[in-house]
Amino acid sequence: MSRSPTITPSQERAATTGTGALDYSSPELLRLEKERLWPKIWQMACREEEIPHVGDFVNYKIFGESILVTRTGEHRIQAFYNVCQHRGRRLREDEKGHATSWYCRFHGWKYDLDGANSYVHDQEDWAECPLRPGDIRLKEVKVGTWAGWVWINQDPNAISLKEYLGEVPSYIDPFEWENGRVSWHETIIAPVNWKVIVEAFIENYHVFATHTGGWQIPRGHSRGVVHGRHGMFYSQRNRVADNSKPMRFQDPDTGEWMTPTSAAEAVWAYNRHIYKRLASLTAEPMMAAAERLRAETPADFPPEKLPLRLMELHKEELAKRGVQWPARLDREAIERAGTDWHVFPNSILLPSADSVLWYRLRPYGDDPERCIFDIWSIARYAPGKEPKVERHETVGFDAFRGRNPFLEEDFANIEAVHEGMKSRGYEGPRFNPVQEPHLANFHRVLKSYCFEDGTV
User: Fold this and answer.
1) Is pLDDT of 118 > 70?
2) What average pLDDT does range 137-146 have in this prediction?
3) Is the overall model pTM greater than 0.85, yes or no?
4) Confidence of residue 243 (pLDDT cuts 50, 70, 90)
5) At what angle do helices 9-17 and 437-451 cross, to 10 degrees?
6) Is residue 172 predicted with pLDDT exceeding 90?
7) Contact, 37 vs 452, CB < 8 A?
């Protein structure tokens, strides 16, 4: 494959070997990503629940492209480039909405909901060079659905979404997130390159040094695993020494520090910490189950049986709220799914039995120093009981402060890394070979798209 003329041989060697900041925020690499990566990968465009009715659409944007992801039938979703086939005017400017057809306000051309052209003003003028219906229909983008998301791919020759995802669904499908509903959605226009955020949220190596607010826990360990172009990690608590220090949590309401008096109380304290500071992974039903576990479990209850007991209580709490427990979700499936998954290149999910925290990263246009960072929490609700959610957007991490204490602990690191990696004193990342092999794999796959043919 021919190389981009904007990359010098020395710069290409640097990007290929993983040294310096070129891997992150150089305009040259961003141009290669724009040309060779983003048009060829599957990426999340919206939740299916955002377009429940025929005619509902979401306007998904990546770089200069605007794509109308539209429900065109009860069981059919299509996606079209948002551009009239006459002179290229955008058909819709709104972020989301409802349409019965597509209309160009420049010269009045019209299109059916499925993209077929239905009207050309003064069409007789083209008598000498007739307009063929296939040439003037809206141009489509490939669409797939998984886990409640609508995914798009601009490459007409792309492999199917199922093939692209590989083994990931076999780990995640038991959670049935297609039946989950968004409980909150935050968008941050972040002052860093998108890859810096990806790296920050796909490893557990940082937890003991970063997430110190409100808790003191024995140092844990994790194991990173590569799955083709994707990756994940398992948390392995208590693998590292230093377990002599007792687990302590700060009560988020009173500010008092507490030491759990039993394993059941430790489970309650952990879930309360996550529920109050992260507002995801532990949602209200799980918190209620943890409260019961603490109150109802006898002191001599075997600690190894607590996970199963908690799951039983969790099922009961969901049933009280009219929510059905996923049929295939047992303890084995929960443990097999691990802690965190990275779906290449820009989707990250942290599954739990109660809710899932899901991230999406996109470049902010042609600016390698900024990105669009979407965060969703998706939980389980009885039909008709899901909350009405409005997306909240902030510009910069400072403007986000006060909205999520747990995530805010990561943001200072992310900004400092973005600036520090530009130093002449930095040669490039040295990924932990046990806990971070999937980060190295992320860069390997990224370079295969930018400098080779994208084969993994």
Assistant:
1) yes
2) 98
3) yes
4) very low
5) 150
6) yes
7) no
CA distance 111 to 90: 13
Tell me how far apart the alpha carbons of residues 293 and 345 are, in angstroms, rounded to a whole number: 39
Backbone angles phi, psi at 92, to 5 degrees: -135, 135
What does the pLDDT look like over 278-306, one tens digit per residue?
Answer: 999 999 999 999 999 999 999 889 999 99
Find where tokens 């492209």 sit. Answer: 65
Token reading at 333? 């499936």
**Residue 414 corresponds to which tokens in the numbers above?**
């992310």
Residues 6+ apart with CB under 8 A from 447: 15, 16
The 10 Å Cβ neighbour count of residue 217 is 21
Tell me the per-residue pLDDT of 321-365, one tens digit each, with 9 for 90 and over. 999 999 999 999 999 999 999 999 999 999 999 999 999 999 999
The C-alpha atoms of residue 376 and residue 390 are separated, in whole angstroms, by 11
362 forms beta bridges with 372
Alpha-carbon span 268 to 240, nearest angstrom: 23
Secondary structure (DSSP) of 231-283:
EEEEEETT-SS-TTSPPEEE-TTT--EE--SSHHHHHHHHHHHHHHHT-SSS-
- Could you give phi then psi for residue 337, rounded to 5 degrees? -70, -20
